[in-house]
Specification:
Blueprint (H helix, E strand, L loop, with lengths): L1 H19 L4 E10 L6 H11 L9 E7 L2 E4 L4 E4 L18 E3 L3 E9 L6
Parallel strand pairs: 1-2
Antiparallel strand pairs: 1-6, 3-4, 3-5
Helix pairs in contact: 1-2
């Protein structure tokens, strides 16, 4: 399950960024994952919960937005969403295209941090 390794890597990146920004406890993490990224969202959520134990992200919620594949159709001169990732053809006109404009992403969109410093 490469999702556990991916979760560990995400946690390490977020911990470094939070530490560099002054610390705190991460309460939420939002990701965008493209349909072609090869990531199972349920397995990533499970791996995240396991890997986050004992870290700044322990107990944080993981919100995942799944992004569809969008290709550029040269005939229509437009970005079109693929209804099926098995056929890289424009659903409007049938023209084949490998010009992927969206769908390969794995992006950390937002990190919510609770400041741990006591207030005066």
């Amino acid at each position: 399950m490469h999702e556990l390794s991916l979760a560990e890597s995400l946690i390490e990146q977020v911990e470094r960024a939070v530490e560099a920004a002054g610390g705190g406890h991460v309460t939420a993490l939002q990701l965008s994952i493209g349909a072609l990224a090869g990531v199972d969202a349920a397995a990533l959520r499970f791996g995240f919960d396991v890997a986050a134990q004992g870290t700044r992200l322990d107990g944080a919620t993981l919100d995942i937005t799944l992004l569809p594949v969008i290709i550029h159709c040269p005939s229509c001169d437009a970005g079109v969403e693929l209804p099926d990732i098995q056929h890289f053809r424009c659903p409007r006109c049938g023209t084949p295209s490998l010009d992927v404009r969206q769908g390969r992403e794995l992006t950390i969109e937002t990190v919510e941090v609770l400041d741990e410093t006591p207030s005066p």
